[in-house]
Amino acid sequence: MKRDLFEALQSARAAKRPVALATDLDSGRQALVVDGAETAGDLQPSPELLSVIAEALQADSSGRLKTPNDSIFVQVFNPPLRLVVVGAVHLAQALVPIAQLAGYEVTIVDPRGAWATQERFPNVEMSRDWPDDALRALELDRRCAVVTLTHDPKLDDPALAVALRSPAFYVGALGSTRTHAKRIERLREEGVSEEEIARIHAPVGLPIGARAPSEIAIAIMGQITQVLRGAPVLVKQDAARESVA
Q1: Which of 19, 22, 26 is nearest to 1 (CA)?
Q2: CB-based contacts of 127: which residues, under 8 Å, 6+ apart?
Q3: pLDDT 10s digits, 63-74
Q4: For 33-53, what is the mean pLDDT?
Q5: Is the pLDDT of residue 234 over 70?
Q6: d(CA 194, CA 67)
């Protein structure tokens, strides 16, 4: 790899940008593809190749690409997946290990010291700052998911306002349809736009009839995965979602 390409790769990774290194195994030419679009290097990828590389980034999948010219090998360097959970509640205790098993670095945000303890969440990074301050300090990027679980507008709303204006790929909020309608009105009053509000997944989670905390945690991680991977919505998002309230 040429020095300038190596430095560009390191710079993209330091900035937590999804980046892929494509190498033509026949010629040795290389292209650095950042965010699935920006390129550098002596290999000029075609629109078709760029599309396939973008799919590899989306899938976190390195290897030989399935293209008419199968001599292209891509190495994917994605930032770590992160999940920020606002609310050190009982549901969070079920959600955290599932998220970790799925490869996420998890941070619990809750200023309530009685809830956010190492005894309840061993080996989990925690912030006891106020949620909006905590989320700004975490510098949310496009590999971050945020879920608010407290049911307390004083904690959830400030977190949502920050998350919705960030590049986070997923923002979910616990609460029934009725609770969410009231939440929307409060966010509007705080100046959150309709486009930003539309990003909230609420009631949070896939509509699988979940009731127990462990089941709701599975529904939440299922929906986060669905959004991350760009999977189609196969189940109608209707009143059945009340079960994940």
Answers
A1: 22
A2: 107, 108, 109, 110, 134, 137, 138
A3: 998 766 678 999
A4: 86
A5: no
A6: 40
